[in-house]
Queue: 4 jobs
Job 1
Amino acid sequence: MILLNPGPVNVSERVRQALMRPDICHRESEFSDLLGRIQQKLLTAFVPGAEADYIAVVLTGSGTAAVESAVMSCLPTGKRMLVLNNGVYGERLSNMIGLHRLGVSELKSEWHIKPDPERVRLALRQHPEVHAVAMVHHETTTGLINPIKEIAEVVDSQNRVFVVDSVSGLGGEAIDIAGSHIYMVAGTAGKCIQGFPGVSFVLLRKGFLERMRGYPKRSWYLHMTHYVDDQGKGTVPFTPAVQVYYAFEEALDELLEEGVANRTQRYRRTATRIRERMGQLGVKALLPPESQSNTITAFHLPSGVTYASLHDQLKDRGYVIYAGQGQLESKIFRIANMGALTEPHIQGFLTAFEQVLAGAAVHT
């Protein structure tokens, strides 16, 4: 089955075979070595040239676990977080903070609109109690790329902490973590890194770590410094998904061999091809080109076609697409092109889509 959904993704045979490596105990040196290699490869991939300034904290859990670990661990007593919300995953950030009543009024934008840096600047001046700002990098609700660099400059100029959910961004979108002075970036194995779901991570700026040690513990499993301290000794505080870590390392090796910039360019080329063919078929994208990500495109459902029918007919042909969410559920569908997808996979999908569309036209 060819997965055109935003994670889990199709992986290479090489990554799949890594699951078959020998069983090891996570309290033994073999696992410590594996963990150390993963951490170093994450730093090499995503903070090149600034590896000494960051720590890669690896968790067993989905990308949401890494995001929640970051936002729950970065606030001192009496301080608050400002969330920039323009999609389902921005809303999820707000809900995480809301559970502990740690937020201020969020800055909401329409789901197709990028946050305005000057609104952020004004909000931070009006709310001195805000210690951190959180935002989604790639808002997969619509396939929108948010202005990370511009927001980071504002947050840094106001001496606040910037936390980025780049679960669907890292490996697929350009982001200068170190150059933008971003304190915490959450990512996952099972999207643009092309690994399996079940392992996630946070890239944490070392200078911020020492400040975090005195912050309240709002979760036992997800408190960041538990992981930092244990992983500094080559171990983990809780039982990890060992075999998935093996596959994660293999996926990181593939990423480094291809090159992060080359992978983002490959994704961009594939997305452009899909968008151009859809345009030729009269299927309209939700967002303008300048707002679109490299790996997900949201399209308006063609007239007279329901998502359920489109999905089921494509799945019968071996291709899985993705529904809209929230207020867009009945209006759009999404095509993701992240993962170990080949030229024949994409051509096969486009052919299948055209067949389904032609059949729908006949029946209407």
Job 2
Amino acid sequence: MPAPPPALRHPDFRRLWTSSLCSGIAMQMAQVAIGWQVYSIRHSAFDLGLIGLAEFVPVPLLALPAGQLADRLPRVGVVMVSSLGDAVVATLLLVVTLHGAHQLWPFVALAALTGAISALGSPAQRSLTPELVPEDLLTGALALRSIAGQVATIGGPAFGGFLFAVRPESVYVASAVMLVVSALVLLPVTRPDAPPMAERANLQTLFAGVRFIRGTPVILGAITLDLFAVLFGGAVALLPLFAKSVLHTGPFGLGVLRSMVAVGALVAGFRLAQRPLAGRAGRTLLLVVGTFGASMVVFGLSRWFWLSALALAVSGFADMYSMNIRSTTVALATPNRLLGRVNAVENVFIGASNELGAFESGAAAALLGATPAVVAGGVLTVALALVWPRLFPALAAVDRLSAAGLREVLPVGRAGPAPAPEPTD
């Protein structure tokens, strides 16, 4: 029997990975149901984008306080409270569904609450992995973390679509249960405690993550490239429209389309977990972003289900490489005492690319039509990949994804996170 990946031999990281898998499946199941219910109310692409906007608005508003929480409180506790908060939202969505789900405003309000919970919990959750595994296993651990997310994205939408077709309420019941399990799995994790933070809370410490990112071009270039690529090139928010009005399939077909993004990402994740990038990381990042944009052009033009599914799989494969390079760069280049605040700011960029990108997709589709909006976004993403080396030459020059490799392009004095303690069962 093959041995598990090295990072999963660390018991606390294994618990974190299991928790992430459970919460990811629960949230993906709910997203399929929400998308179908929202689009069924008025058959409006703009409404789909509005849900994404509602999820994004709390992220920049709460980012800086959330970073302080992640750097001052035990991060495991913050993540557990976040999972329980999401379980409450799933329960409220169950109530809305039981009352017919005929109005848009409850979905918008609960999307905003989901965004607030994510904004407060995500910096702590993203900061845990570098603490739980040593540096030499970090790239593989981050790939495994992404694999958990992508496994959830494969199984969650398909299973959620199936449950919704049987009985809509069952999706939210299953989601709430899995989110509670996600929190309980973390109970045995006793470390790490809150990171040492000698500074008093003030405006200077509040904006420390912003200053660090601004002064580190490699990090700034990586996260802004991801922001604009997914902002312009992403089309996941429009999948209910394409499934129903272009490809003429039902809820299960929508779940399959959403899952295909994760299928491609999962293939890339397993490859990265087994064979982390050995070099040319910066140029690889630019290449996969360009590939992501090209796949969106194909998806926008396709009228065949199988071709659309294949294009989404390619986009997921490329996006996984991009996420892994970005996440590893941030984790290795950021000191542990700043990791929560840096991840909080990065979370704004991620939220902008996902939730605000969903609003942009819906608004563009309402103005231009779904196909022109997706194709134009893909073309813009390819253009970004061509221009970025001139704007951020240090990013293009990154070779090895290691602390030593990043020191070659980082400003003098930047240090990565402290080594993780050895695991104990």
Job 3
Amino acid sequence: MIKDESDAKTILDRLGKLSVFLKNLDADAGNDECFNYPLEIIQKTMMFDVSVLYKVSNIIEDRLILEVVKVLDPKKSRLDLKEGRKLRLFLDARDKRYVNEVNAFLNKNVSCINVPGMGCDVMGYVFFPKDCGGAYLFGGDFFGKEASVKDFEVSTVEIMCNFLSTILLKTQLKQKAEYDGLTGLYNAEKIKEELGILLKRLERKPEISASIAMGDIDFFKKINDTYGHIQGDIILREVGNILSMSMREYFDMAGRYGGEEFLLILDEIDGDRAVQVVERIREKIETTRFAQVDRSGKIIENQFLNITMSFGVAHLNNGMNNGLNKGAGDFSTLTNHISKADNALYASKQSGRNKTTLFKETN
């Protein structure tokens, strides 16, 4: 029994559609989403019984650790491939079920060694920088004695690997350019860009309400000086997580503005309601117990730190609603609105910290 022959013309057509799909893929989509289409091509168009995606988790001495990320196996042919399972494979490929996985990883290319009735028949390597999460492997298996993998099928897998390597790297570089590596929030340039987009929308539709908030961790320098910068980084990371989880999807966004300062954009909300939202965030941070670590980064059991944050809120279209706005150009000045939130933050600091203050225009 041999594998059904695939049609080269049909595969070429699917490769063209894959190229368009990957180019149009949202940069915020997860890495695994990029592989859905290629896995379908292998299983449905190239006529393999099974297609599988692995993520390279680690290499420990003479073993390669792979995580099974996704499997298309409608006939339940490969019971050893369960999503979430970790495979520990010897790098000398002594287990013939996974000879192509090991070979593809070691050679950083496509492997199609035929082992009748055992393991995947073709496996490709998708390069991804180690600091971005490591490599991926994906391929297909015909559950029979002879796979008869054609040269154009091998070339197809190789082309898909190159497509995926390029798009994953491009997506990761874009994310690195927009996101703060420590907190996972937007970086300063990106959050200011988003604020600029919002201000332009408010110019066109002045009836819409929106607010921003500037937040600052109280006595953060003292935390670094007392407990070390690793402790400070842990607090920044956790604060970033709290802020991210507190944002309304499709409405709000948060960014690390610099150091221990954060800028929040709260869309479709006036100043008073924005203060209520920010107050809930401030209270959440105040009641959070942050894990304490020593200067080497080791967690100290049953030791925690409590911190507080101060916030300043500015209603973005106060001037427009009150007839005080001097023109669209003046209204769209980023620094003007950020300085209002910053002034309100300063007032919170001056009045004792751990507070939220709403900026109010003075005549």
Job 4
Amino acid sequence: MAKKVLITGGAGFIGSNLSLQLLQKGYEVIVLDNLSPQIHGNKEQSPLYNSIKDKVQFIEADVRDRESLVDVVKQANVIIHLAAETGTGQSMYSVEKYIDVNCTGTGALLDVLLNEKHNVEKVILSSSRAVYGEGKYQNAKGEAVYPTSRSEEQMQLKKFEPLDENGNDLKVLATDEDSRINPLSLYGITKYNQEQYVSMMCGAAKIPFVIFRYQNVYGPGQSLKNPYTGILSIFSTQIKNGNNINVFEDGLESRDFVFVDDVVNATILGIEKPEANNEVFNVGSGVATSVLTVAETLKRLYQSSIEIKTTGNYRLGDIRHNFAALEKIKSKLGFVPKTNFETGIKLFADWVNTQQIEKDNYEKSMAELAAKGLLKK
């Protein structure tokens, strides 16, 4: 008998791709999703929702809705908890919303698991590299260090690289799972809170859990409507509207961009491998790519003549560098990312070229940040 997998937030970018892959592997899939307009727009026109609509058992409900959770949890053997508000910048002023959805929603799910009858054998949590804040660095003595937030004084001087306590340069390293937890945004704090809730309460209930700290996930199907998260989508929408791109800082800040198929494969390993039980894993490409490289690559792939400007502007809560160390997930689960950035961004751009051009709401999102004093020039 096929296992039933409940995916909260399963109509989103990662969730819809994961749902389709699980169906191909013979699993039954239940999706609970509130179809947030920020991601989906009109649900009838949402490519993400429509890709799974008639293929999974779909429940349109909020993860904070306990009654709906009770109904679906009792049907599931595995729960993959993806439902969350995402976006570091937006989290810095939509405080109540992020805490409510990410923390209260996770609490509601765990309350059902602790207090209702069910047959759940494993819980998988989608966490984030945001729990680390700045990544791992090395000082001149060869010691591992974990910088805190860059000061406004430093940023105003356009010195964007993290420095040690004496003002000296640091060497960026791959961030491993034992690195210091140091979230620099409210979003990162809520994701670490989720990790703590899941590890404690699943441990108490004797339900195996797996925590995946995803890096920057991208690929075909990513929402082009959301101006708050997903840098490839944001830049693509700007370019397609003929708008110039203003890159924060000096453009050399870097991220680990991991293709959605690799994230899906890692997550399925979490379901199927007992070696994953009660462990925390990074999921990324293991390669740092600068934001300026992303913008320039997309401009070239779209054959665009827009201008790319490095403004020196910066956002409070942003980090400079973070890329994943993958030794743990490779050794325990046999995970190796298959899609490099050059291949993945080409696949993404080819898909964008088939899509309707969405309205560019990025400047509106920046105006919201500026009004709250979170965007600095």
